Amino acid sequence: HASRTDGVDKNVWVEFTQLAADYKAVNLGQGFPDFSPPKFIQEAFCKAVSGGPIMHQYTRAFGHPPLVRSLAKFFSRIVGHEIDPLEDILVTVGAYQALFCAFQALVNEGDEVIIVEPFFDCYQPMVKMAGGKAVYVPLRPKAASGAVLSSGDWVLSAEELASKFTPRTKAVVINTPNNPIGKVYKTEELQMIADLCIKHDALCISDEVYEWLTYDGAKHVKIASLPGMWERTITVGSAGKTFSATGWKVGWAISSGHIVKHMKTIHQNTVYHCATAAQEAVAQGFEREYEVFGSPESYFQQLPAMLHLKRNKLASCLESVGLQPIITCASVSDGKSFVLLFVLWFGLATIPVSAFYSPEHSKEFDKYIRFCFVKEDSTLDAAEDILRKWS
Ligand code: PMP
Ligand code: GLN
Prior knowledge:
Keywords: Aminotransferase, Lyase, Pyridoxal phosphate, Transferase. Its cofactor is pyridoxal 5'-phosphate. Residues 25-328 form the Aminotransferase class I/classII large domain. By secondary structure, this protein is of the alpha/beta class. The protein contains 14 helices and 15 strands. It folds into 2 domains: 3-30 and 297-390, Alpha-Beta Complex (Aspartate Aminotransferase, domain 1); 41-292, Type I PLP-dependent aspartate aminotransferase-like (Major domain) (Aspartate Aminotransferase, domain 2), CATH 3.40.640.10. It has helices spanning 12-22, 39-49, 65-79, 94-106, 123-129, 158-164, 187-199, 239-242, 257-268, 276-292, 299-320, 335-346, 359-362, 377-390; strands at residues 26-27, 89-92, 112-117, 133-138, 140-141, 154-155, 169-175, 203-207, 233-238, 251-254, 324-326, 329-331, 348-349, 351-352, 368-370. The strands form 4 sheets. A 7-stranded mixed beta sheet has the order 2-10-9-8-7-3-4, sandwiched between helices. A 4-stranded antiparallel beta sheet has the order 11-12-15-14. A two-stranded parallel ribbon has the order 1-13. Strand 7 (169-175), helix 7 (187-199) and strand 8 (203-207) form a beta-alpha-beta unit. Glutamine binds next to loops.
């Protein structure tokens, strides 16, 4: 076998999803909605698949034309830059493949990529498979007097980040809102990262798959919208997260054409394109959202409003059984053992937060576990029953 597969063979989602299935556990582990996508997009999908032969055949390699047009129209307004649908967008097989194309196309043997911890686990193996070296910088819980209660209390030190740059630094990877802790970076924090990227002529790969999931008035800001950042930022998005349809596997990367060009090279020689009908449905979804944007009819308002209630429901349940929720994680004495014990004995699956850390730092964060609340109320009730029995 090829040596690039060494050391990247373990995958937390493969492992824990199997465990949850084996033990028929209530699954608050893997982050996917157990409810249906909104009606309008389901209907768009049905219409696409019954709409004649072309929806069942290949489409444009770099993105189905209606989809790149609607993404360009929708996001130009948000990023404050005229996005060219043909040059500046690559539609991919989920955000996973957008990330893969970015690392493969932009990272050379020996390049360093700074990753902010905790991070979505695939960044590290993807950097490694591209021949790069992952360099970590942690978000640290603010050492305030009281308890750390919110993900906003996890901060990135400007000095610490600055100290990680070397002449080999190719890119910084951020994820806002962050998986697993839900932190939404403030404009000042993004500006600090942007200043360092510009100073060191580094790229920024910004994973924004949860861009609509903000609560309590927090506002998601795109780092690509800051001065001087459009031409060095690759913004990654996911229709799976956006429209609660993770199985459709439609994602995208948006960046300047001179960067996307190289990502297209990887894409055309690996998957070529993703499912035509799913792209067509997502295009219709964005057309609709463009029209209702900012109104209560918008799914991008309805989804967070619904999840906000679910978050509070789960948080008060965790509190009442003696766990300390840090929206959206909870603190226990030993995360990994707790998670395993819970699946095996109590039938409730969660995810240890240590899985989102590099081996060097995972120990420090072993006392946290992640509960996903993008679930039906009945699923959350079942989890609550289990937690009450345990406590
Ligand atoms: N980035 C983050 C932060 C994620 O949580 C996920 C998983 N949903 C992805 C990327 C991959 O997204 P997709 O399912 O669209 O491939
Ligand atoms: N992104 C999802 C999560 O954070 C799961 C990804 C996967 O299952 N591969 O839970």
